[in-house]
Amino acid sequence: MAKRVQKPSSLERSAAPEADSEAAYERIARALERLAPAAPEKPRFTAADAFSWHPDARRLVPVEHVNRVEMSLLKGIDRMRDMLLENTERFARGLPANNALLWGARGMGKSSLVKAVHAAVNGTHARRKGGDGQLKLIEIHREDIESLPDLMALMRGAPYRFIVFCDDLSFEAEDTSYKSLKAMLEGGIEGRPNNVVFYATSNRRHLMARDMMDNERSTAINPGEAVEEKVSLSDRFGLWLGFHRCSQDEFLAMVDGYVAHYRIAHAREKTHREALEWATTRGARSGRVAWQYVQDLAGRLGVKLEDKGR
Fold it and tell me: Taking a C-beta distance cutoff of 8 angstroms, is the pair 240, 83 a contact?
C-alpha cells in the first residue's frame, strides 16, 4: 500500500516565501556591507612624530625613522632657515603661523630644511613639556592632493599640531587637483584647521609650468582671469622662501661640514679640489651634489656614514 504524502497546510505554504525573503534580505545586507568602504582607522598619533598619508585606506602610517639631515649641516640657507624655524616655533606654541612655500634651485636643501625644522622644534617642545612631541609631520604625495579633505578630517580637533608636508609640488596642464589645495589653504567653507599648517617645496615659484600659464592666456576668453586663477594658488602661502644656487665658497663649506661631522680623515686641500671636480662633472653646485661627493669619498676611504656624536 503506497504511503500517503501529506501536503503542507496553507499556513506553512505562506510562511515559506517569507522565510526565503528574509534569508535573501540577509544575504543582500551582508553583500552590501562587504562592498561598503571600511571605516577609517582612528589614528594613533602617539605612535610616532611623523606619518605618511595613504588615501586609498584613508589612514596615517607611522614613520619611525625620518630620513633627515641635522640642522647644523644645512649651509648657505641661513635666512630661510631662520624664517621657517621662527614660523614653526610660533605654530608649535599655538600662535598664528603661515603656510610656507619653499621654492627654487634643485638640491639646495628645501625638503631637508622642513624635516630638520620639525625635529628641532619638536625636540625643544618635548623637552619643555615632557613626553612625546606635540608637533606631528604628515607627508602627503603630490598625486594625493585631492584627498586633502579626508586628511583634514582626521586631524581636525586632535590634541596635536600638524605640519602637512608635500615635497616637489607642481601642477601640469589639465590638472585640476590644485583647486583642492586652494580650498584647503584658505578658500573652503571649513578652511584649514587651526592645528594645521601646510609646507610645500617646489622648483617653481608659482607651482605652474610657464608654458601652462601661457596656454591659459592664449586660449581663454579673458586671459587675465585665467592666469590669475593659476597664480593665485601660490598667493595662498603667506611665507615664500626662495632657494638659489650656492657660491663656490658655500659649496665647499657644505663639504667641510659633512667631512667634519662624520670625522672623515682627508686633507682639506685635496678634498676641496676633488669636490670642485665632482661638481663640474655634474654641472652644478648644491647641497645635494656636496652630499653625493661626500658619500663617494667615504666609500673610497672605507668610512661608514654614521653619526658618531661629539
Answer: no
Residue 200 CB: number of other CB atoms within 10 A? 27
Alpha-carbon gap, residue 251 to 77, rounded angstroms: 11
DSSP-derived letter for residue 77 is -
| Residue 247: DSSP 8-state | P
Cα distances (Å, whole numbers) of residue 53 to 36, 39, 99, 133, 201: 21, 16, 19, 19, 17
Q: Which three cell numbers stand for residue 143?
A: 598625486
Question: 3-class SS at 194?
Answer: coil
Among 143, 90, 210, 107, which residue's Cα sits nearest to residue 99? 90
Report pTM: 0.78
Sheet holding 135-139: strands in order across?
Answer: 59-62, 50-54, 135-139, 161-166, 196-202, 100-104, 239-243
Collect all residues with Cβ–Cβ distance below 8 Å to 246 and sequence separation of at least 6. Answer: 75, 76, 108, 254, 285, 286, 287
CA-closest candidate to residue 181, choices 101, 90, 95: 101
pLDDT single digits (tens) 109-145? 999 999 999 999 988 876 665 555 689 999 999 889 8
Domain 45-243 has CATH 3.30.420.40: no
What is the number of residues in the chain?
A: 310
CB burial of 13-38 (b: ≥16 within 10 Å; e: otherwise) equals eeeeeeeeeeeeeeeeeeeeeeeeee
